[in-house]
User: Which sequence fits this backbone?
């Protein structure tokens, strides 16, 4: 049973929250002010703390700091009637997980608490939770043990059970097609091949011909009927990659299909049917394109049933060692080489990089390193040209086990980030691409002695 602490000085709101939260099966304690909340937090750990931002005896942001100090694993939900970007930013910097604007419904509060509990559960899972699935290629080559990647795995397994459209957002090279294939692989459509349409690489005419097909005589060169990918994907899945690039006319035809499952081939007079599941991928903000008139609002809402947002690699740097070794094993097997290790110096170089090309760029870097490496260990000079060693100490290519390499690299990067951020844990966590709680845990688990920076 999840434990919830409610901090609210208003008797009516507090009573409503207690009654509602208890009805959902949570174990609830209450505090009427900051001082009583401090006493409760010193004696008991809570999964979620729901607190008002305006308290009579303490500033709300100060209370958030205290909560994260004595109970860093607790998820903090802030209630306020006076939300602003400045206040929200300050609360998040102090460690708040989410906001609820007054007045709110109990359904909204329940959803917010459940979301916080799900995130907390993912953060607390053992690192090996998804290892078997990853090794069995359940996620079609996706790899990582960070909280961000665990959220992606959880979402993939959830949406795979449905037939609803999904929009997958992410920067170029972040793995959008891999996510789409993982959704298909874990769905009941897995026995049939998934179709992929590269919307950005096709002209309007070619896109419509590829997607919807055409009939004989529809245009010069159409000597026979052609079945489009939408029809070919009936009973399967179709990925529309870079969907933000399609024309208004194609958008209109796609909307008609999403509404009733029917479409008309180019030059045809008869409608065809297909039950293909549509996944869409894009590296642009479709909502912005809707606002600028480049993308139909009704199509956007038809597609935007379920969404997955892939984080850029720089925001989950702790996955770089695991991804690097994953790619190393694959490319070493393909090239029939006995390369088994990556030097800690090479890993440090890769951990320090921003990776504008994301996972794809990392994959290409490891492929190049395997190609040029003639020994059993990848060294810094095997990596892509332009990668600077910076101030990483040269360890003469000393090979470490994967676990040792990850731990040693993490420790070095934590100390480096803390130095660059002058001891500010929140800023250092952002630089490392992890949250403040994860940073605090790693400092504690490694027993790192962080000096005072000025």
Assistant:
């Amino acid at each position: 049973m999840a434990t919830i602490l409610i901090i609210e000085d208003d008797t009516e709101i507090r009573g409503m929250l207690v009654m509602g939260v208890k009805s959902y099966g949570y174990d609830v304690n209450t505090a009427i002010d900051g001082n009583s909340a401090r006493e409760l937090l010193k004696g008991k750990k809570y999964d979620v703390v729901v607190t008002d931002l305006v308290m009579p005896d303490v500033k709300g942001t100060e209370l958030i700091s205290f909560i994260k100090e004595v109970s860093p694993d607790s998820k903090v939900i802030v209630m306020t009637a006076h939300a602003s970007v400045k206040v929200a930013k300050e609360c998040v910097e102090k460690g708040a997980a989410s906001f609820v604007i007054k007045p709110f419904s109990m359904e909204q509060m329940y959803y917010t608490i459940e979301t916080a509990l799900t995130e907390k559960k993912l953060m607390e899972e053992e690192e090996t939770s998804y290892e078997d699935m990853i090794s069995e290629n359940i996620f079609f080559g996706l790899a990582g043990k960070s909280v961000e990647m665990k959220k992606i795995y959880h979402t993939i397994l959830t949406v795979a059970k449905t037939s609803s459209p999904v929009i997958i957002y992410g920067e170029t090279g972040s793995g959008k097609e891999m996510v789409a294939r993982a959704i298909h692989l874990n769905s009941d459509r897995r026995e049939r091949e998934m179709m992929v349409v590269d919307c950005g690489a096709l002209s309007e005419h070619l896109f419509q011909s590829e997607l919807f097909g055409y009939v004989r005589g529809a245009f010069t060169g159409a000597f026979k009927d052609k079945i489009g990918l939408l029809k070919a994907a009936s009973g399967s899945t179709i990925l529309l990659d870079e969907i933000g690039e399609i024309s208004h006319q194609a958008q209109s035809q796609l909307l008609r299909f999403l509404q009733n499952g029917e479409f008309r081939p180019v030059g045809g007079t008869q409608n065809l049917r297909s039950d293909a599941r549509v996944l869409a991928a894009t590296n642009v903000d479709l909502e912005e394109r809707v606002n600028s008139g480049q993308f139909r609002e009704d199509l956007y809402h038809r597609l935007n049933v379920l969404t997955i947002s892939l984080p850029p690699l720089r925001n989950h740097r702790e996955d770089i060692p695991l991804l690097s070794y994953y790619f190393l094993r694959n490319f070493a097997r393909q090239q029939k080489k006995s390369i088994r290790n990556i030097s800690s110096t090479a890993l440090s170089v890769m951990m320090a990089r921003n990776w504008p090309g994301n996972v794809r760029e990392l994959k290409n870097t490891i492929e190049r390193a395997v190609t040029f490496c003639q020994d059993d260990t990848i060294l810094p000079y095997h990596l892509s040209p332009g990668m600077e060693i910076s101030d990483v100490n040269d360890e003469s290519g000393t090979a470490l086990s994967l676990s040792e390499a990850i731990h040693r690299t993490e420790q070095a990067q934590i100390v480096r980030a803390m130095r660059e951020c002058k001891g500010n844990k929140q800023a250092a966590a952002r630089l490392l691409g992890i949250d403040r709680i994860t940073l605090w845990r790693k400092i504690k688990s490694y027993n790192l002695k962080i000096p005072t920076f000025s």
Observations:
- Residues 388-398 have pLDDT under 50 and may be disordered.
